[in-house]
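Late entry, written up from scratch paper. The run itself happened at the end of the previous shift, but nothing got recorded in the book at the time, so transcribing now.
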Amino acid sequence: MICTRLRSSWLALAATLTLTVFASAPARAQGLASVARPPAAQSGPPARGFMWKAERAGRQVWLVGSLHLLTADFYPLPDVIEQAFAKSNVLMEEIDMADASDPQFQAMVISKALNPQGVTLASQLSRETIAAVTAWLAKVGIPFESLQVMKPWMVAITVQTLGLKQLGFDENLGIDKHFADAAKRANKPLEPFETALEQINFLDGLSAKTQDAMLRESVESNEKEQAEIKTIAAAWRAGDVATMERVALADMKDSPEVYETLLAGRNRRWIPKIEVCSRANASCFVVVGAAHLVGPDGLLAQLKQRGFTVTQQ
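Output as recorded:
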């Protein structure tokens, strides 16, 4: 049975999929309730950041956990992260975000996000979710009929992205975007783990029950969700592994399908590519969603199993 505690996983999802393409989803929900912006960085010890060094046979792999949407007060990044990037030979990220900006790809997203002829949003939802979505739409002044052409996962992404933006998070400030731009300026090669189309297919392939739960939770936002989003961001800043794992992974593990599709299965496919990069280059710089690094199925644990010495920086 799918647990409906998925709402606090949106920043975790944003730490799991490079959903740059979805950040431009239709901004129909202009009436989203106002929420507090994450507090600016406090004075005190400098931010540690979320980075590890993995070493084997004289080769280094730097692994940075990305939050794909962030606020301006996270910059500049800690010096140790920027210095590691400067010393690296190649950048590895989930996707090449330039591909996601291609107009043809954007058209493909729309084609996948829309329902087939004769299928409506309501026909794919439980009565409980229809009631929750209807109540939310009434608050923001959007007619339910205007969303009938969209698949549940796309409506959920739209709602959740808007919620993050209300909190002040911006896809243009994501860690992966920051280093993709830096690699371009430095003529440093970027090797993607996946294509943008694969990422869309992960969501489009989720079961009807999981999509229903995602959408219901996306409109049932509350103070707990806002607090957990801030907790994940604060854990990244402090390099707090225990908190990141507890908050970012707990809700995902409540849905085995989400956990396997969006996290564990992808980690297993990425590890061989990281090993190939480490054999071919003196230093690889890996930037993936922070949730991919932690936990028993995380990249750090898998690299240790393969003989890498892994140390947090």
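The first helix runs from residue 10 to 14.
(Scratch paper discarded after transcription.)
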